[in-house]
């Protein structure tokens, strides 16, 4: 069975969550990506943050890991492991305006807008909110 291991940051600043959107999906998601054979989960988390948003960050602590047994988009049976890390940016953003970076729309969205359903978001974001890993106090 195909297995995917991915890692990405959870960054909240000023009550806003850093999320991205690309042309592959019709929802917003956390930055992140697949672990290369040579990189650790932590290295992958920080590499993907920089590749997808242009931001450099540092890891504060490990958050919940989510394991799925099928691809939520295609329904294909596979093992998917999503690892999340509470992170902070090395340099605070100059503003919170949306911008494009390497094909990704990067946005800082108020958490209450996510909870109210104002943005279509990936299932793992809902899971992390329910677990208490994403909240206004994460800063």
Strand content: 35-45%
**Total beta strand runs:** 9
Series of secondary-structure elements, N-terminal to C-terminal: EEEEHEEEEEHH
Q: Specify the CATH class.
A: Alpha Beta
Structural class: alpha+beta
Biggest sheet features: 5 strands, mixed
How many domains would you count in the coordinates?
A: 1
CATH overall fold name: Nucleoside Triphosphate Pyrophosphohydrolase
Say which CATH homologous superfamily is assigned.
Answer: Nucleoside Triphosphate Pyrophosphohydrolase
Radius of gyration: 14 Å
How far apart are the termini?
38 Å
What helical percentage do the residues reach? 10-25%
CATH architecture: Alpha-Beta Complex
Count, helices: 3
- Stretches with pLDDT under 50, minimum 5 residues: none
Give a nutshell description of this structure.
The chain has 139 residues and is α+β, with helices and mostly antiparallel strands. Helices cover 19% and strands 37% of the residues.
Q: Your description of this structure?
A:
With 139 residues, the protein is of the alpha+beta class. It has a single domain (3-134), classed as Nucleoside Triphosphate Pyrophosphohydrolase (Alpha-Beta Complex). It has helices spanning 41-53, 111-115, 123-130; strands at residues 3-10, 12-13, 16-21, 33-34, 57-62, 66-70, 77-89, 99-101, 104-110. Strands 1, 4, 5, 6 and 7 form a 5-stranded mixed sheet that branches. Strands 2-3-9-8 form a 4-stranded antiparallel sheet. The radius of gyration is 14 Å and the shape is globular. The N and C termini lie far apart (38 Å). The model has no long low-confidence stretch (mean pLDDT 92).
């Amino acid at each position: 069975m195909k297995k995917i291991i991915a890692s990405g940051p959870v960054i909240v600043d000023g009550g806003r969550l850093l999320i991205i959107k690309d042309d592959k999906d019709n929802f917003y998601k956390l930055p992140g990506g697949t672990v290369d054979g040579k990189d650790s989960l932590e290295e992958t988390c920080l590499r993907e943050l920089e590749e997808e948003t242009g931001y450099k960050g540092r890891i504060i602590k490990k958050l919940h890991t989510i394991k799925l047994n099928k691809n939520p988009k295609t329904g294909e049976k596979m093992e998917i492991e999503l690892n999340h890390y509470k992170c902070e940016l090395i340099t605070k953003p100059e503003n919170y305006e949306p911008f494009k970076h390497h094909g990704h729309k990067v946005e800082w969205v108020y958490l209450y807008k996510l909870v109210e359903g104002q943005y279509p978001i990936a299932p793992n974001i809902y899971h992390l909110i329910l677990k208490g890993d994403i909240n206004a106090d994460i800063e």
